């Protein structure tokens, strides 16, 4: 046997060992992922302390999977290590900030960037992670860091530590083959876990009706506004979401509120009394309890529990037995005020009420129902009866007198010791401006509805034009099969797909593309037509294989869109592939579009994309890049728009997420797989109460 033959045999043996190791590690990775998902659901259903239980399990699972002696999970918050970490030994969040302060350890921005890339300098690593106790056991001589990054922001990282080179090599080898999958799935798991905690929190606060329960982000922008807040302040939740809560606080109380906010950062909770403006710009004296929202010691915002104490203030300051009103306050009040006894007779009214009724006759001793026009009398009496017969502390009624609108507020007067009913105070608050504005809005709404009717035919024409863009028939032969799911939203959207067989220099190729124009309406539909025109022009210019590249088409489309000089908010995402069955490969390129999925022979799942690739129309003269992936028999290729991601993300069951769906159904044959995803989507989008984005899915089967 010659020396060269010996070398060749050794090389082939090593190559075979490499392939075996790769296959084994890949299979083990999928077993780990499925085990994590099963335990996620088990803990989610049974644990009262979900986050601690699950993150403890996750760190323990990674420790076992990567053959490590110590497994730690660190959270980041605004670029800084959070207050704690999970060790994998128990479910409690351990204090890490005090450790850093005690050891006087500072993590620079440069080293934070290294952490994002899974790297860290030896000096910083030993300073931070090698405490005196750990150093004695030499457990941190070797380490692996798995960063969890979302849009270049480091959310968390897992630290695996090894006592010797052998165990480190086993973990490093396993991580080498599966690092991309682990990073992607760990990010999804952490996001889902946090969403689950917030969903539970939202359900709880929505049940409250007696108090205004408001949640905000760290900047005090409102994120939830419960039914109690709607009743107390008169605003619907959709009118106030994402507005800053400070806008509702009367300016004289802002400084006091900010002080209470600072105190809440140091104490578990704090209270402050402020005056808040309701929908009538009426000051409502309120007591606000402030508490931070935290998940795993990460500060996500605040919740504010607001109680209306204005009635208590009125009773304490202005009511004493039969002499219930301090005349010095109410005589010149801008609101009309009436005081009734137990028989609904007027025992006091102020000057403002004379202007409201346009009468200067004396009302003292009269039944309140005889003061106002007959059409309002029964309504006023009904509101008073409700105060007498129930335990409610407040009632109101809107009436129009002449050109003016008034919001009448009814407050019962009760004996503070016995609790007996002693009368009613009625406040007449001028509500004219708001009601006129509402009427004007209703008139404008009616006008817009008429205008909308005139646009319906144009929208129908645009939808028909968009439907003509897609191919009537898709390639289908003994080598390849194409299927499509194309569901447009109730508005005219910008989704578009195309696929065809193309012959070049005697060889057959298959072209497939999905794209999505930002926004909806006729303009988005017209841009879809433009994409098709540019594609046809590109196809007609292809003469040689060097011209036939996805990146060339996307660069050409980008240049054409920029030449149109359309508004900056309009852009196009696209994913373009060329399938070469002769060489068993796919050449693909992307312009800010979700990647494609490749299910290889009903077994492994690959997510293929082009990173840092901008959408069409956002950057001029950009040269797009392309990649190549190998394909084989029984491979399933999935191209889709972001409407599919939004659809799966809206599912209440965590099994509904797209990744889970692929894992559960990867073994189905092509026809069953297509029917499965099609029926799942169509069953949900038939719900007219939910507004869906366009959903486009292009499925390809290599036979």
Characterise the protein shown here.
With 703 residues, the chain is an alpha+beta fold. It has four domains: 3-178, Beta-Lactamase, CATH 3.30.450; 207-308, PAS domain (Beta-Lactamase, 2-Layer Sandwich); 325-430, Beta-Lactamase, CATH 3.30.450; 470-702, PPM-type phosphatase domain (Phosphatase 2c, domain 1), CATH 3.60.40. It contains 20 helices and 25 strands. The strands form five sheets. The chain has a five-stranded antiparallel β-sheet. The protein starts with a helix and ends with a strand. Mean pLDDT is 77; it is low at 44-49, 79-84, 131-139 and 317-326.
CATH fold-level name of the largest domain: Phosphatase 2c, domain 1
What percent strand?
25-35%
Record field, number of beta strands: 25
Strands ordered across the widest β-sheet: 3-2-1-5-4
- Give start-end ranges of low-pLDDT stretches: 44-49, 79-84, 131-139, 317-326
Bulk shape: elongated
Helix percent band = 40-55%
Question: What class, by secondary structure content?
Answer: alpha+beta
What's the CATH H-level superfamily name of the largest domain? PPM-type phosphatase domain
Total separate domains: 4
What Rg is obtained from the alpha carbons, in whole angstroms? 34 Å
């Amino acid at each position: 046997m010659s020396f060269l033959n010996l070398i060749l045999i050794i090389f082939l043996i090593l190559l075979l060992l490499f392939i075996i190791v790769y296959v084994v590690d890949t299979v083990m990775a999928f077993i780990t992922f499925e085990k994590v998902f099963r335990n996620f659901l088990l803990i989610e259903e049974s644990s009262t302390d979900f986050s601690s239980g699950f993150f403890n399990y996750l760190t323990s699972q990674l420790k076992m999977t990567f053959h490590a002696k110590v497994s730690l999970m660190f959270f980041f918050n605004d670029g800084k290590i959070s207050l704690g970490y999970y060790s994998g030994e128990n479910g409690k969040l351990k204090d890490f900030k005090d450790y850093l302060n005690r050891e006087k350890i500072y993590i620079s921005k440069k080293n934070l960037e290294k952490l994002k890339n899974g790297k860290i300098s030896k000096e910083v690593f030993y300073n931070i992670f090698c405490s005196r106790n750990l150093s004695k056991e030499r457990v941190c001589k070797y380490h692996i860091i798995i960063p969890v990054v979302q849009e270049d922001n480091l959310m968390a990282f897992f630290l695996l530590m090894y006592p010797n080179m052998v165990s480190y090599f086993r973990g490093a080898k396993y991580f080498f083959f599966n690092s991309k999958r682990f990073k992607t799935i760990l990010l999804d798991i952490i996001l889902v876990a946090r969403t689950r905690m917030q969903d539970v929190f939202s359900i709880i606060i929505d049940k409250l009706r007696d108090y205004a329960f408001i949640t905000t982000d760290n900047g005090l922008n409102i994120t939830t506004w419960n039914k109690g807040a709607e009743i107390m302040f008169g605003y619907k939740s959709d009118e106030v979401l994402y507005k800053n809560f400070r806008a509702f606080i009367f300016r004289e109380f802002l400084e006091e509120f900010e002080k209470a906010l600072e105190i809440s950062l140091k104490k578990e909770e704090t209270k402050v009394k402020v005056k808040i403006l309701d929908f009538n710009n009426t000051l409502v004296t309120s007591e606000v309890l402030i508490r931070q929202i935290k998940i795993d010691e990460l500060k996500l915002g605040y919740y504010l529990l607001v109680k209306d104490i204005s009635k208590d203030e009125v009773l304490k300051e202005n009511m004493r037995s039969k002499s219930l009103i301090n005349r010095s306050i109410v005589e010149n009040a801008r609101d009309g005020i009436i005081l009734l006894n137990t028989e609904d007779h007027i025992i006091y009214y102020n000057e403002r009420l004379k202007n409201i009724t346009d009468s200067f006759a004396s009302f003292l001793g009269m039944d309140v129902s005889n003061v106002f026009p007959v059409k309002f009398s029964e309504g006023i009496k009904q509101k008073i009866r409700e105060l007498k017969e129930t335990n409610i502390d407040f009632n109101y009624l809107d009436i129009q007198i002449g050109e003016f609108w008034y919001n009448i507020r009814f407050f019962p007067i009760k004996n503070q010791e016995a609790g007996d009913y002693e009368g009613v105070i009625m406040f007449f608050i001028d509500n004219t401006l708001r009601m006129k504005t509402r009427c004007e809005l209703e008139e404008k709404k009616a006008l817009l509805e008429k205008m909308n009717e005139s646009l319906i035919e144009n929208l129908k024409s645009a939808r028909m034009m968009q439907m003509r863009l897609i191919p009537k028939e898709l390639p289908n032969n003994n080598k390849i099969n194409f299927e499509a799911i194309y569901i447009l939203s109730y508005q005219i959207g910008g989704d578009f797909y195309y696929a065809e067989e193309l012959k070049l220099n005697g060889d057959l190729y298959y072209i497939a593309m999905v794209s999505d124009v930002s926004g909806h309406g006729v303009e988005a539909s017209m841009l879809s037509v433009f994409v098709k025109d540019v594609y046809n022009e590109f196809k007609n210019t292809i003469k040689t294989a060097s011209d036939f590249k996805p990146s060339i088409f996307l660069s050409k489309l980008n240049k054409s869109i920029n030449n149109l000089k359309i508004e900056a908010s309009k852009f196009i995402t696209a994913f373009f592939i060329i399938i070469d069955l002769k060489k068993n490969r796919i050449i693909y390129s992307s312009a800010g579009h979700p990647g494609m999925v490749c299910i290889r022979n009903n077994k492994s799942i690959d997510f293929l994309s082009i990173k840092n690739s901008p959408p069409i129309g956002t950057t001029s003269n950009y040269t797009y890049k392309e990649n190549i992936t190998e394909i084989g028999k029984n491979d399933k290729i999935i191209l889709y728009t972001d409407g599919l991601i939004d659809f799966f993300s809206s599912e209440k069951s965590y099994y509904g997420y797209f990744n889970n769906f692929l894992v559960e159904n990867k073994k189905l044959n092509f026809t069953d797989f297509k029917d499965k995803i099609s029926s799942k989507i169509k069953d949900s989008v038939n719900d007219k109460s939910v507004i869906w984005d366009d959903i486009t899915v292009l499925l390809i089967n290599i036979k």
